[in-house]
Predict the 3D structure of the following.
Amino acid sequence: MKFVMYRDSKGEFRWRLIATNGKTLADSGEGYKNKADCAATIDSIKKLAPNASVEEEA
């Protein structure tokens, strides 16, 4: 699994989380004007995701 950072058509930075089979598992959903902000979001996800709860909606 890997994160891929790229520029969108507006020149903003975005990320995708790619599975080992090449499928996109998640994406940023928004563009970041600064590469550092995009990278900081990736770092936050890497740190916080192991603690994320799983909830089921009825």
